[in-house]
């Protein structure tokens, strides 16, 4: 993506400075909703990706709360973004500050989008930008289909005509100079004591005398406001990932001489053992097998092709690096890890006392809920090199859901 905008370019401004008061009021303390996980990825990241990959968008900037920089850095790691800017007390202030920050970029157009709408698609972006050839502003919206009633407490008092009524969404597209001037005008009026209370940026442009066009949005492009919305988003995301892949991984490492190590590293944990495992990295057979299983799901080689044992930088490396990398490759392809299952084969050490801790560590590394991780163990009934206590083996299965057009 080209992050150096020109006078004819378009920049997407993602507004993520809110605190999610309605979401928190519903019993969701902690990180604001835009940083909550959705299919192993922050809602904010999913909201930004369609703009990052759109050929008509030359840059993406996120407006964040001053207290959220660490959350932002974690959520958006590895993406080519313009540096974030801090927002203000209200959404309107945040948008204006974001627009002001783009003055040096001189974009021809700007797309203003809510961080809590993770399902915008390229067609909506196309329609929004095309409308700017006819109007200084345009909003994505969907026509009302349900009957409308006005009520007082639990009594219907009147029917409301729904003809011509639309539910506004984002992105909202504007000619940059027009929307910046409109926000400045409104801010100046508010400084003189006028209380505007605009609900969106289209209203700001209209107040300044600009016309706003309508383009068709999508029912899928909903805003996450409550925990129920987040659950709906999870269901919608999974339904969109119709390509289900299963991958297998196997790894074996031998024990070294007694006394050289006091532990083995297994499924991300160091477990006491009179003999350690021999390997170029930390010889974690569980994480190695899981890494290969994930790479198999996306047809991207094996652990040795990504982390060659001949490369000295991986000498003694923590195998969490390998599994985390494989998980990131799945997510980069728009995929979701549905389940990870690993079986450890050995006579010793005993796995059962550490099983839950192993599940938790694997879940943490791969960015999953612990319920999506299974760890089992068995012996070979004293048969073969495993039965003789010469080493440890692991077999793993990964299940991944991918977009149908990912490959």
Annotate the secondary structure layout.
Layout: E1 10-16, H1 21-25, H2 43-52, E2 59-64, H3 69-75, E3 85-86, H4 91-101, E4 109-114, H5 122-131, E5 137-143, E6 148-152, E7 155-160, E8 166-175, H6 176-191, H7 201-207, E9 212-216, H8 227-240, E10 243-254, E11 263-266, E12 269-272, H9 285-297, H10 303-306, H11 320-332, E13 336-345, H12 355-366, E14 373-378, H13 384-387, E15 391-402
Parallel strand pairs: 1-2, 1-4, 2-3, 5-9, 13-14
Antiparallel strand pairs: 4-8, 5-8, 6-7, 10-15, 11-12, 13-15
Helix pairs in contact: 4-6, 6-7, 9-11
Question: Short description, anyone?
Answer:
This protein has helices at residues 21-25, 43-52, 69-75, 91-101, 122-131, 176-191, 201-207, 227-240, 285-297, 303-306, 320-332, 355-366, 384-387; strands at residues 10-16, 59-64, 85-86, 109-114, 137-143, 148-152, 155-160, 166-175, 212-216, 243-254, 263-266, 269-272, 336-345, 373-378, 391-402. It is α/β, with parallel strands linked by helices and 407 residues long.
